[in-house]
Specification:
The complex is a heterodimer of chains A (391) and B (260).
Chain A: H1 6-10, H2 18-34, H3 39-45, H4 51-59, H5 76-89, H6 91-111, H7 114-126, E1 131-134, E2 150-154, E3 157-168, E4 175-182, E5 190-196, E6 202-203, E7 218-229, E8 233-238, H8 241-275, E9 277-278, E10 281-282, H9 287-315, H10 321-345, H11 357-369, H12 374-386
Parallel strand pairs in A: 1-4, 2-4
Antiparallel strand pairs in A: 2-3, 3-7, 4-5, 5-8, 6-7, 9-10
Chain B: E1 2-6, E2 9-11, E3 33-35, H1 37-53, E4 56-63, H2 65-77, E5 81-86, H3 95-107, E6 113-117, H4 128-136, E7 139-150, E8 154-160, E9 166-172, E10 175-179, H5 191-197, E11 202-205, H6 214-217, H7 242-255
Parallel strand pairs in B: 1-4, 1-6, 4-5, 5-11, 6-10, 7-10
Antiparallel strand pairs in B: 2-3, 7-8, 8-9
Classes of the chains: A alpha+beta (391), B alpha/beta (260).
The complex binds flavin-adenine dinucleotide.
Chain lengths: 391, 260
């Protein structure tokens, strides 16, 4: 019987350059050789593999779509494909790269002073310095304009007070990009500060008991009279728009990443279905299972093809935030559904971390919520279509 | 040191192979191709030798567009330049024919160390490296496990012999080495390497450029038919206590499977 693989169905190679294909291949190999065999164990033990930071840095995956300062300067298609391959491994691995590249290096690259760029970017690209991005607070998630973290000008610097929560990598970060309202109470007063771990009054305790993104470190950031020098502020980042445009960078990569998680689930479901026999035949030969596999393959293929189109628009500087919201919303919801389908095809085996599907399904619950919840993106697209603000 | 490494593109490990309608080749359409596993180690060995003693690594591949993808990856891994013999006429060629093309393309360059994979993942002839050595008048070792420079004119090489024997010997240059898999952590192409690969020099030859006549390229071996191994259901449950089961298994591996 002549069969067709998911890759053949997508036929992506026609749309991407040799360089982009190579980036996908080396990232795929890195994940296959250095991550997949321990993905379940890391998830179960709630450990982030610190050795992967150096490995990703050596390859150049951190901040890879930025130009100069030790960054690889790749296309956004290459960036998206790399995020997809990382998340094929685990959403935690991709989250690390998203936070480091899009949420920390990007704002320094875009709004930082020359000194800040020189000081942080090359080391962050190599993975020698780890960053985190502190926007969310205990009482301000979807509505970051309501944040209460304050910065006050004080002589030759600033004093910061407040609490951040759900901050990816904060327990292992060397430098935190902290967003706070400076000398005012309006969203337009929001400014970004680079706070180094070890600064007096700064701490980043770990948040435990997560049932999702377990192979990723999440923590709080507590700021108690943290005194910062004048050059700790990102000079050109002003107002809520600044952190939101970081999020747009990361969301773009997340949309690709989610496709990677979906692919991992599809591959697992297909293989399992071929081997699992019930009522005398493999479940792959049952119509109900085939319908699920066909749905998954179709969803993954169409998502991937659309994402490459949007990535090209991003390379041309023509990607609108509405498109990014749509990409993130659709892609993550698709992946979550694929993970649940695959989990179900695996029967009871599907509930153990010996298989990837439940891990991806649980991880994707976080991905559904962070970087703008599914509902928030619905409201953004809805606002764009109708001109009515429904927040 | 002037170092050459030879690479071949083969169907990726998990590629689903279908026999073509002529029954003597595979359907190439839709397959992803990758550098053959042993050849990756050959590239790594070449780069390590250069890093320890200096010089340059040139990568060579014979083939169509698929080969140029492999070349790009090898350049991205750190090779300095490339020779691409562009042809789709040798896809099914036997080892000696390929070796003739390689030797002709490499002849004028006076490479001192030539690395090949010990065999390719697809045809597995295990013969290109010795044939290249013969044609270049160079010394040769197969199933190479480690390589160290000894001054400028020799290499200290360990390689596998039959019966699990490992020989370590000095080999004077020029030499052709067939590299075994699994002997190193092979480096990944870095993203910066990928970005700079496109600007590294590539020499392209056609078979005509190399002046190889049709007679020289006439195959010594032709593939008459290919078949997918038949699935046979021959599972056998070994019974008894653990010691008996282990004993029976070892006996079977020795006498029936003949792998021990
Ligand atoms: C694992 C993990 C890692 C994270 N990493 C980071 C990080 O690195 N940095 C960082 O700053 N943050 C991070 N976050 C925080 C994340 O961005 C927030 O959790 C998210 O923005 C949602 O905020 P919230 O949890 O306060 O939910 P809320 O804003 O309280 O929302 C609760 C529910 O109400 C819905 N809702 C909210 N507003 C509306 C509305 N107007 N209309 C309809 N429905 C609405 C939401 O969609 C959601 O379903 C992380 C979160 C997780 C889980």
């Amino acid at each position: 019987m002549q069969t067709i693989s998911l890759d053949e169905l997508i036929a992506l190679d026609r749309l991407i350059s040799d360089e982009e294909r190579l980036v996908r291949e080396v990232t795929r190999r890195l994940v296959a050789e250095r991550y997949l065999s321990r993905a379940g164990e890391l998830f179960e033990k709630a450990e982030f593999p610190m050795d992967m930071i150096e490995a990703m840095g050596e390859l150049g995956l951190l901040g890879m779509n930025l130009q100069g300062y030790g960054c690889a300067g790749m296309s956004n298609v290459a960036y998206g494909l790399a995020m997809e391959e990382l998340e094929y491994g685990d959403s935690g691995l991709r989250s690390f790269a998203s936070v480091q590249g899009s949420l920390c290096m990007y704002p320094i690259h875009r709004w930082g002073s020359e000194e800040q760029k020189q000081k942080y970017l090359p080391k962050m690209a190599r993975g020698e310095l780890v960053g985190c991005f502190g926007l969310t607070e205990p009482n301000a998630g979807s509505d970051p304009g309501a944040m209460t973290t304050r910065a006050v000008s004080d002589g030759d610097g600033y004093v910061l007070n407040g609490n951040k929560m759900w901050i990816t990598n904060s327990p292992i970060a060397d430098v935190a990009v902290v967003w706070a309202k400076l000398d005012g109470d309006e969203p337009s007063d929001i400014r970004g500060f680079l706070v180094e771990a070890g600064t007096k009054g700064y701490s980043a305790p770990e948040q435990h008991h997560k049932m999702s993104l377990r192979a990723s470190r999440t923590g709080e950031i507590s700021l108690e009279d943290v005194r910062l020098p004048k050059d700790a502020i990102l000079p050109a980042a002003r107002g809520l728009g600044a952190p939101l445009s970081c999020l747009n960078q990361a969301r773009f990569g997340i949309a690709f990443g989610a496709v990677g998680a979906a692919r991992a689930c599809f591959d697992e479901a297909l293989q399992y279905a071929k081997g699992r026999v019930t009522f005398g035949r493999p479940i792959a030969a049952k119509q109900l299972i085939q319908a699920q596999l066909a749905d998954m393959a179709e969803d993954i293929a169409l998502s991937e093809l659309a994402l490459v189109h949007y990535a090209r628009l991003k390379d041309e500087g023509k990607l609108s935030p509405y498109m990014v919201s749509m990409m993130k919303r659709k892609s993550v919801a698709m992946a979550l559904q694929a993970a649940r389908r695959s989990r179900s095809i695996l029967g009871a085996n599907g509930i153990t971390v010996d298989y990837a599907s439940i891990r991806h399904a649980m991880n994707l619950e976080s991905v559904y919520t962070y970087e703008g919840t599914h509902e928030v993106h619905t409201l953004i697209v809805g606002r764009g279509l109708t001109g009515e603000n429904a927040f | 040191m002037k170092i050459l490494c030879c690479i071949k593109q083969v169907p990726e490990k998990d590629a689903r192979i279908r026999v073509a309608s002529d029954g003597a080749w595979i359907v190439e359409e839709g397959i992803s191709w990758a550098i053959s596993e042993c050849d990756r180690y050959a590239v790594e060995a070449a780069l390590r030798l250069k890093e320890s003693i200096g010089g340059e690594v040139c990568v060579l591949s014979v083939g169509d567009d698929k080969a140029s993808k492999g070349i790009k990856e090898a350049l991205a891994m750190g090779c300095d330049r490339a020779i691409h013999v562009q042809t789709d006429a040798v896809a099914r060629a036997d080892a000696v024919t390929i070796a003739k093309v390689i030797a002709r393309a490499a002849k004028d360059e006076q490479f001192e160390a030539v690395f090949c994979g010990v065999q390719s993942d697809d045809l597995g002839y295990n013969a290109v490296a010795p044939a290249v050595a013969e044609l270049l008048g160079a010394r040769h070792m197969q199933i190479v496990l480690s390589v160290e420079p000894v001054g400028e004119s020799a290499l200290k090489v360990s390689h596998e012999l039959d019966n699990n024997l490992i020989e370590t010997a000095e080999i004077s240059l020029p030499a052709v080495l067939g590299v075994q898999t699994g002997i190193y952590d092979v480096r990944y192409a870095s993203l910066k390497g990928i970005m700079s690969a496109g600007s590294k020099p590539q020499t392209r030859y056609s078979l005509e450029d190399l002046g190889l006549s049709e007679a020289e390229l006439a195959p010594k071996v032709t593939i008459e038919s290919l078949a997918v191994p038949e699935r046979t259901h021959q599972a056998e449950m070994i019974e008894g206590d653990p010691a008996t089961m282990a004993h029976t298994l070892v006996e079977k591996l020795k006498t029936q499977a003949k792998v021990l």
